[in-house]
Amino acid sequence: MRKMKKINGYLVVRFNDREKRVNEGTGLGSFGVIDAEQYTGILDIDRDVMEYDSADTLEEAIEQARGLETEQDVEEPQIKVTIITETDTGSTEEEVDPVSLFQHRKASLEHVNAGCIPELGKIMTAQQLYGYASALLDLGIADMGDERFQVDPGISSDLVPLLLTSEKNKEFQVFLSLLNEVEAYAAAQTEDDVPERENFLYPPSNNQIYPKIYALGKQFLKDCPSNDCTIFRNTFQMCLEVDSQLDRLTGFPRRWLSKRIEREYRYLEQMFCYNAAVKAYREQHPPEAAQNSGEEGGDDG
Fold first, then answer.
1. Residue 15's closest CA among 60, 53, 68?
2. Collapsed DSSP state (helix, strand, coil) of residue 206
3. Is the confidence at residue 294, as pLDDT, over 80?
4. Is residue 270 classed as helix, strand or coil in its secondary structure?
5. Which residues contact 122 (CB under 8 A, 6 or more apart)?
6. Which of 232, 230, 231 is nearest to 212 (CA)?
7. Tens of pLDDT, residues 87-135
8. Buried b / exposed e across 99-130, counting CB within 10 Å, b at 16+?
9. What are the backbone dihedrals phi and psi of residue 12, each rounded to the nearest 5 degrees, phi first?
10. What gap in Å lies between CA 20 and CA 42, rounded to an integer?
11. How far apart are CA 93 and CA 85, in angstroms?
12. Distance in angstroms (rounded) separating the CA atoms of residues 74 and 80
């Protein structure tokens, strides 16, 4: 539920899609009215003490609340969290707004998944955002009753036939299975798992920097500092497995995954050329590919 208005001690609340779906057929409308002091934000608890719960429009619910009277807008309380980072040389403090973090992550995921077919993009965004919200809840940063952090991770009933039928959606099922394999692979991979080759199977164009990126990634799997190099290593692991498995896919799943991995390749390239921690490591540990080939030119281009 989300608080919309406060009228003479009563809250007008809006029910979200998940709440309406779960309570379908029970008379639950789109808006309700509840004593502000009894509001918890959990529908199963609040519904028993609601004055009204069947209004279809906000205007109707406001009139119901006025019948019980001086209107004032209710703003959600601002949340501020201080993050303390301690190192060997001292500590730093940074104040962050979890709501802004959540909305930024939501916008980023929607942008990343915009290239999918609409149904697939919505599912992937919801699943990833649900994991992010769960982490905020586990850390005590977000309140489970605060709708600003609520995400419905499920698949709506009208999408089920679309996802489970037809030859095209058999490819979709293989695609989802592959994504799960990639995640598990990246978490468990070791140096011994890396194929004996000198480059990705499908690197962007014929850019000569990628054998060097590949060699550096292999080094990080064996010996990776606890700094930005870890980000490079994790991205490399994901790219390595997706690159190795692309031949298992056809049609739209392959086109989408190829486009998605292209962005990760470019991210690796940017880190290889410009990230301070990665460049410092390269200076101390020259990539094997560069050593073997003797090609030192063009590292950063």
1. 53
2. coil
3. no
4. helix
5. 113
6. 232
7. 888 888 877 788 888 888 888 777 777 765 556 667 777 777 777 777 7
8. bebbeebbeebeeebeebeebbbbbbbbbbbe
9. -95, 125
10. 13
11. 6
12. 18
Angstrom CA distances, 57 to 12, 53, 148, stand at 11, 11, 21
* Range 267-282 average pLDDT: 90
Give 174-217 pLDDT, tens digit per residue: 666 666 665 565 555 555 555 578 888 888 776 788 999 999 99
Residue 211 phi/psi, 5-degree rounding, is -60, -35
Give this prediction's pTM. 0.39
- The amino acid that residue 50 corresponds to is M
Token pair recorded at residue 12: 């007008």
- Give tens-digit pLDDT for 232-269: 988 898 888 888 878 877 776 777 778 778 888 888 98
Among 100, 76, 79, smallest CA distance to 3 is for: 76
Residue 255, token pair as written in the block: 């086109």
Three-state DSSP class for 101?
helix
